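Note to self: the last two entries modelled the partners one at a time, which told us nothing about the interface. This time every component goes in together.
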Amino acid sequence: MSAAEKMSRRDEMETLLPFYLNGSLEGSDLEAVEEWLASDPAALAALGEAEAEFSGTTAANEAIRPPADALSRFAKVLDAEAGPARAQAGASWLAQAWGRFMAVPVGVAWAAAAVLLALIIVQSFVQPGGKGKDFEIAGAEGDLAKMPFALVKFKPDAKMSDISGFLGNNGLKIIGGPTADGVFLLGIPADNAADYAKQLGLIAAQPFTETVIEGRKPVDGG
Amino acid sequence: MTAATETDRALVDRVAKGDRAAVRLLFMRHHARVYRFVARQTGSEMMADDIANEVFLELWRQAPGFEGRSEVSTWLLGIARFKALSSLRKKKEDWIDDEAAAAVPDSADTPEVVTMKEDKAAALRRFVDALPEEHRTVIDLAYYHGQSVGEIGEVLGIPVATVKTRMFYARKKLGEALKAAGYDRGWP
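The predicted structure of the combined assembly is written out below.
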């Protein structure tokens, strides 16, 4: 091999080294570099030089710091660009509820988490693929199957934190739904009809409640 | 598949269906690199900020048409490159902002004197920064962005052979600059 040919090969290998280092080299180019590294004493030193370039280039790039608020500013631009229609297209009530849940202060988010988890479980049980049709009662063979319930629809702008707080304080549980219309099956822990009616009245009085419909009532004296 | 392990391509599919959360995830994954790429292209972090946002808006707009023939990162860098060049073309006057000015070495010292004050790594970094834009870009894309020869060709819209030629001259110039500064590395 002549000196010119050898230099030419060296030039070619030096050109490929950056791609060998970044792991993108393949095929005959990869074989050629590996063969060179294994056979030429100068190759390992050359690889070390390329590694130094690698480090220097990485340092030069990482010295540039993107603004810390870049994501929040982009989110606003995106909202302005996308508008509400596309964002909500095809979104389930649960997905929208999740969005509102994410907007609540961190301090109260934990309280909503339990309810949200219940919703997700119910959602996956009732609405595979996010397209529910009818009610099903979670744990239908257990106590929940006999539990008094009501049909409840929450307002679209209801906050999960408000709902979860209310449900938790009153011993209420979501045991089914939502339907495609966003109606939930709410378990009512009432022993008699009067208590049942009282609790329905309380639910209906909440600012986040859109509709309450009587479901299975407890049997007095039963 | 969780969001943490969801591939870029799967996220683009979600974006195509109007999922803003997926755009935000892609933004979090790729923004810093896109921002740095544009900053290095334009020499302006202000332009980088605007252009990086535009890149991700383009992602939102073009996601339905993304065919997955290239990596999402390559696609984004290609958009960034196009927008950076467009912005530079629009800029009528030759300007140099404060950030770029700060990056220019003090002219009171000759390059040799400046180099003597620093170690080899710092010198190398400075020489990379001082490369002509077309050479520095292939260095950045290979070393920092991990792009292959073919991917760099896609980003820059140039043939593979040209990528290799630019890489050859970029590294040759780095070697010559180091040699002039007293760091002979045996090639070229």
